[in-house]
Structure formats: C-alpha cells, structure tokens
Design a protein that fits this description.
This protein is α/β, with parallel strands linked by helices and about 280 residues long. The protein has ten helices and ten strands. It starts with about 25 loop residues before the first strand and ends in a 21-residue tail after the last helix.
C-alpha cells in the first residue's frame, strides 16, 4: 500500500492541536481495515463530538468508504480500536451499533423503494415500542416538514433530494447520538447537494448530534464542517479546522483537485476504479 512518502505533500505539516473541540462521542484509534488480509486504511485516528460535523475527504481510492464500513460493522477492523463514549465497540455488528446510538446512512440502498414514506419511517423505528412509533414519526417529520406532505408516497416516486431526506429521517427514528453519512450527495445536482449539506447535515449537528461525513464533494463538505481529516493512500495526511483547510491553497491544489490559482473552483477528481 502506498505510504505518505509516496505523495507530493509529504512535507505539508499535519496540524495536531485539537484543543477546544468537544469530547468525542465516536473515535478511532490507529484503525486498519481492508479486504482479503490487505489493509486499505492503516493507522487512522479521528473523532467526532456532539454538535460537530466532521468530514473525511480525499481522492477516490483513498479508503474513505472502507473506513466507514469498518467503523459501522460491515467490514472487520484488522487492528486498532473504535470507541463510542469510551466503550470499545470494535467489530461490533451494525444492528448492535444501532442499538447503542450509531445511525448509518449508506450511499446506496438507503430506503425501501416499495414502501411509503410512513412505512420507511416505521421500519426505521423497529427497536421502538409499538406505541412510541407514531409519536416519533411526528417528531422526525417536524425536522423534515417537506416529508410530512409525502407520507403516503412510495419511496420510488421521490426525487433524489427527497429520497436522501427520507434516508436520514429513517435513521433518526432511533435518535442516534452519532450519525454516519456515506456520500449523502451522490448523484444529486449541485443545488440539491448544497441543500442536503446545509439544510440537513448542518442543522442536525446544531441540534447536538455528532455527524461523521464522508463526501466526495470536498468543498461543499468543508463549507458545513467544523473539523476535517484528509485521507490519502489509506492514512490521515492532514487534519484541522475545516475553514483553515479550505483556505490553504497548497491543500486545495493537491488534495481537492483545484489549482492554487482557482480559489472559487469546483473541479472534483475523476472517479477511480480502486477499492474504497
């Protein structure tokens, strides 16, 4: 696997001072994970606390989705620890993590196409007592009032933005302390992607939820994030306040696919066929 010395930013200093951040609700310590015994990510340490949006960004093939799969119980952690409020949850299965307070919205297959909005939300509340479900649906729909007008529509008839809204709402039925989002703006228009990140992701964090976001649209993600980690070749190369990372032309050029002379650009790296 490539190391940090194989990329052109090995001389860029990695900020290490995380003072002033909240105590992490979810944290990784030196996590390694991959496929068939080969590590795609290695030595990854990061954390996300209540009220924070923390983004993991970087080139395609850097291991972002591999990291999320390992953390959410869909892929084995080879080494290192994952903790939830100081409780070791390394290699805990996904359905058990949901009971513990981690909600996960995958990039695809995030809703049940043949079910209505209400039925999707009922499925999301599968751990609740029957008498609690209706009240919880009302609470969730108060956060997403647009969905309240679509209760009887099947998910297959929703637009991309409405579908993603439903996916997030379904996971919120269990009131997770930590929300993990894998590419929530995938296949959305630029306008809808901005709305999802600004109106949904940022608002959820402002309500106290810890939000861990993997996103290919790096500039948009940084714009709503408090802290960011840049993953390259399976390792965290840089971490720091999102606003500072966004402002640095050296990082913008090497990691985000934008030249230093294009401060307002939005060029994204081309898709790679490599494992994520």
């Amino acid at each position: 696997m490539p190391t940090s010395s194989d990329n052109p930013v090995s001389d860029v200093p990695v900020p290490s001072d995380e003072g002033g951040r909240t105590q992490p609700a979810l944290s990784f310590q030196d996590v390694a994970a991959g496929y068939g015994g080969a590590a795609i990510v290695a030595g990854v340490s990061l954390g996300v606390g209540p009220g924070e949006v923390v983004s993991v960004i970087g080139p395609n093939g850097a291991g972002k989705s591999t990291l999320l799969k390992a953390v959410t119980g869909r892929l084995s952690v080879m080494s290192g620890r994952v903790t939830l409020n100081d409780r070791d949850v390394t290699n805990t299965r996904g359905h058990l993590l949901a009971r513990m307070g981690i909600g996960f919205v995958p990039q695809v297959k995030d809703v049940f196409d043949t079910l209505t909005v209400t039925e999707n939300l009922e499925m999301g509340g599968y751990l609740l007592a029957r008498q609690q479900v209706a009240a919880r649906i009302d609470q969730v729909l108060s956060t997403f009032p647009a969905l309240a007008q679509m209760r009887s529509r099947t998910a297959s008839t929703l637009s991309g933005g409405e579908r993603k809204m439903l996916a997030v709402a379904r996971v919120l039925m269990l009131e997770p302390a930590v929300l993990v989002l894998d590419e929530p703006t995938s296949n959305l228009s630029a306008e809808l992607a901005h709305a999802v990140l600004r109106d949904q992701v940022r608002r959820l964090a402002d309500s106290g939820t810890a939000v861990l976001l993997v996103e290919q649209k790096a500039f948009e993600a940084l714009g709503v994030s408090d802290w960011a980690y840049i993953l390259v070749a399976g390792r965290v190369e840089i971490s720091g306040p999102a606003s500072e990372i966004l402002a640095r032309p050296d990082i913008r050029e090497v990691f985000l696919g934008q030249s230093a002379g294009e401060p307002g650009g939005r060029r994204e790296p081309e898709k790679s066929q490599a494992h994520e």
